[in-house]
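Moderator note: this is an archived Q&A kept for reference. The question asked for a predicted structure of one protein chain; the sequence and the answer are reproduced below.
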Amino acid sequence: MDPRDYLNAFLGEAREHLQELGLAIVRIESAPDDQETVERVFRIAHSLKGMSATMGFESIATLTHAMEDVLELLRQRTGGLSRETVDVLSACLDALEAAVEGIATDGQERLDAVPLVARLRGLARERTPEQELDRDGGVALPDLARLGAGQDGRRVAHVVAELDDSAPMPGARAFMVFEALAVHGELVGGVPAPDGVERFGGRRVEAWVLTDADDAALEATAASVGEVVRAEVREAPAPAAAPAQPAAAAAQRRTSTTVRVDAERLDELLHLMGELVIDRTTVEALTAELEVPGLRQALQRLARSSQALQAIVTRVRMVPVETVFLRFPRLVRDLAARLGKQVDLRLLGQDTELDRTVIDALGDPLVHLVRNALDHGLEAPDARVAAGKPAVGTIELEARHAGGHVIVSVRDDGRGIDPAAVARIALARGLIDVDAAAALDAPRAAELLFAPGFSTASATTDLSGRGVGMDAVRSSIRALGGEVTLESAPATGTLAKIRLPLTLASVGALLVLADGLPFAIPLDRVERTMRIAEVNLRSVGGAPML
């Protein structure tokens, strides 16, 4: 089987790893001695290396291999990671993201790993012979006597998995065995070497796992991997006591109950669910006047079942807004450094769920709002201190449910919107007249910022000043059936609030008849209903008007 048959799975997992890597890098910068996060970066690099090597993406494998090697040395040092290390890891992340997107576009990595590998090597001394593992597919064994029986009665289990003689890509199968066993504990050695699977051509995979799982669970896990015909746990040496296990290793023992499903299949399921709801409504209308014994009860059961199914299908498409929020720690870090500002980014309500379609379209508008908060909202540290504020500004990104909608807000404690400054610019551009400029208050000034081409920036830069920001944000949000508003007070800060429907999968509607024809009006567009007979009508141009 061609390894590229697994391309979609590779891209999905790689993007998830890179999102986590970006967040981990930001955490390391704020807490350089956070050993758990350093361990997390190490594991991400290791996973990416194995995945990319198996798929034949050598440039990604080379770069992540170097990241893993250097981090293995650096995490042994005291004092945490340096700012230079964080900068190099950020450059590696940028290169890996570009490479993954290149693969998604046309299958080409477009990654020159050599300069980045050189920068990584410059961060640490070369590996000693004792640290160098056998990378040619041989045994990569740990010091079992040092590991021993860990805390909570853990032991080193020796798992042997036999592959079918006709199994394609034995290296990929070995990698899958290692990844499957990792849910039971910490993989501490293997045959082939866990980071040399791409050159493996054998039929017996061996793994040493520091675990508290029983033999049956380990054997069942290894045997569940495709093309594994037999798996058993053998005796491992009985070593002495082990040092305390890092807390980060426990994260590897979490089991996963998720299944990857192609988005197109979910869309098709959703479409069929919509058709079912329409057909159910039609049947209910057609049989409303029939007096067939048991028919009403059957229709009620059908309605309950279809409503429950519709709710389940809708939930399947829901994903946490965290998938969007995770991009902002790095974005804020980079922009703050360029602007010479100090920022504390707070993320709230990351587990709030939205429809996948809404999530996909939410990223760009939020980027606009966060960049505006950084560039236009927050003052420089000396200006904040002079105004009696802390030197470090705050940007708060929050998501929360509100009835059948979700509110996503971006709040800053910066200078706020100055109505007088907005009035001068709007007057100069002919957007308002002199009288309107004199009477402009904060709410009207905030609304003017959404005018096409409007900008308060004094100069055009790559961050702002082009006047294509807020009107583009409003257009994008309205296309999703939502709305965006601004609230601000001078010298206090600005709140941008986005109101979005929970899902685009189904929309409640008001059914009406007009001239004998049926129409459905989305309920979120209905302000109120009234009886025409209770309202005075006027005649305009010979036609009755309400």
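Archived answer notes: The chain has five domains: 3-121, 144-243, 263-316, 320-501, 509-545.
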